[in-house]
Amino acid sequence: MFPNQTEETSHMAVSTIRNWWNERSHLICDSCLCSVTLNLSETLRTRQLLINFDGGRPVWSLRAPLDLVNFPSIPRPRWPIECEVVNDVIQHIEWDPPEPEPFYQPTGLERTPLQVGEEKGNLVYCIDHVTKQPYFTCSRVGGSKGPIKNATPYDNQTQFTLEFESRFESGNLQKAVQVGVYGYELTLRTDLYTTKHTQWFYFRVRNMKAGVTYRFTIVNLMKSSSLYSVGMRPLLYSERAAGENGVGWQRAGSNIRYYPNGNEDNNGDNIPLYSLSWTLQFPYDSDTCYLAHCYPYTYSHLQCYLRRVSSNPAVASYCKVRVLCHSLAGNAVYVLTITSLGVGKLEGRAKKAVVVTARVHPGETNGSWMMEGLLDFLLGDSDDAQLLRNTFVFKVVPMLNPDGVVVGNGRCSLAGRDLNRNYKTLLRDAFPCVWHTRNMVERLLAETEVVLYCDFHGHSRKNNVFMYGCNTRGNASLKLHERVFPLMMSKNACSKFSFKSCKFRVQKSKEGTGRIVMWRLGIKNSYTMEATFGGSTLGDRTGTHFTTRDLKSLGFCFCDTLLDYCDPNPSKIIYCLKELTALLRKQARERLGKDLGTDCRFSVSDLETSTSGSNSSDSDGPPVHLLNQPKTTIPQVWQLT
């Protein structure tokens, strides 16, 4: 019986197929099977039914859903047609240091180098800023059709000159100027089709000398404050160290200084610029090394992970990998549905759902490492994982902005806009990733209750891990309940998660974020989980950087906390509610300067400051390609968003 058809309709379809076969069977030969199948599709007005032949007789089957992903091979990512992409395959081993890596301790003697610039320095690396078009037009696998240009002027090279490259997946470096023998001023590329958002960097270096102290200075950062000011170190990866000693990404660098450099961007926006300067010694001569802001996690890395998942028969029985939609460039946005089969109802009710997403901001790679930890837990064979799969339907979108990840953006998609300010949009074709995610959640809410939504992020100005939630006005009980899950997280990861850093304000400037939009759809527990780019200031991990293992452990902890939160025994929730009541009264006394009676009602929002998130007002509004059209052609639908 065909899906969604009555018995009468099914009989009609069978009769049509039988008549079709009787009329054409004598005409069929092996060379015309394709046309036979096409004729059948036209007769039935469906492409879902497939026909094969066994001994001259038809064998009918249903076509698998078009969005079901089997990964026979890893699709190569699609790039904007303007982007030059080198053919090198970039791979890094996963490794964690045997001991936590300490923060850099400033001495007070760190230098503030004077900027020399291209005019007085030696330009040794420069790539196009992809300004041939003011907005995204089309894409292809491998980017630009033309030959790869030489980004390193040969006449400017010496035996001491480092060789730079960033034209690979997630790479970001636009220009390098040699200043002195061992000093380099670096310029990062802004997010494609924007003039903003310089934070994420990831590039390759060759032709170095071991034991020599090099100085790198990034000269066009746009954030006024950074964790580099309080001990965060950049990351270094050596291919020789990886191959010979099994050592991967390490924190490296000394004489670290983050400071205003007195310059402004040259795009007419008069935005003050900042510099990050640090010194570094490479471990080997003539090595191939990489420098990065955070542990890279590329789109291809995700696809390899999902291929392993889908190729495991045991895991595939409770995890379906599908394509939610395609991005502007045509890269697949994957969604995983994780739940135990055959346990569709609990006590006569449909399973409740949990929605988790990550990488709406492509430069926040720590979100992907937390996501991988969560998936490792949910797809594992532990009793707790089995219990979660029996209890919930998990909808997981592990990479919301694959285009931004591929090209090395920090914050935006190829629409030149911050997707996490556009969850309310009606422009499906301009913002497909968030439009389809919201649509998926709306359909899910029509079927069952969504217990929790969480979007994984990275944070550049605070240490530790924490959550931003939503504060319900006028209902004191809900205000407390919205804080229970983050408080439980802090208890389960006491050396990494800071409840004190959690905020629950609903700010007007953040109305388009996933957290607030999902909350307004009716999901009471709606959060972003923010992991620092730096490390911890808590417990026995005080003053140490987070590793990929630490970040994955937060995904594990998220699952553990979900088990605690949904425990049929309410004792843990009751305990947390009592603790929250006492904590909020204490904060009120300290803030308001007076004691509050046990029955006194107070506004929790009055106790909180801003969430201190990134200001993305410059990334709001219509996508760039609409702004570049004549005003009369801008669709009326934008007025509704």
UniProtKB/TrEMBL annotation:
Sorted alphabetically, the keyword list is: Carboxypeptidase, Cell projection, Cytoplasm, Cytoskeleton, Hydrolase, Metal-binding, Metalloprotease, Protease, Zinc
> Belongs to which family?
Belongs to the peptidase M14 family.
What does the entry give for GO biological process? Answer: proteolysis
User: Example GO molecular function term?
Assistant: metallocarboxypeptidase activity
Superkingdom of source: Eukaryota
Cofactor requirement = Zn(2+)
Domain named Peptidase M14 is located at 295-566
Q: Which residues cross the membrane?
A: none
Reaction(s) catalyzed by this protein? (L-glutamyl)(n+1)-gamma-L-glutamyl-L-glutamyl-[protein] + H2O = (L-glutamyl)(n)-gamma-L-glutamyl-L-glutamyl-[protein] + L-glutamate
Q: Species name for this entry?
A: Salarias fasciatus
The record's subcellular locations are: Cytoplasm, Cytoskeleton, Cilium basal body; Cytoplasm, Cytoskeleton, Microtubule organizing center, Centrosome, Centriole; Cytoplasm, Cytosol
* CC terms in the record's Gene Ontology section: centriole; cytosol
Q: Which parts of the sequence are annotated with region: Disordered?
A: 606-634
Q: Which residues lie in Low complexity bias regions?
A: 609-623
Q: Read off the PROSITE patterns from this record.
A: PEPTIDASE_M14
Active-site residues are: 530 (proton donor/acceptor)
Against Pfam families, the record matches this protein to: Pepdidase_M14_N, Peptidase_M14
Would you tell me the protein name for this molecule? Cytosolic carboxypeptidase 2
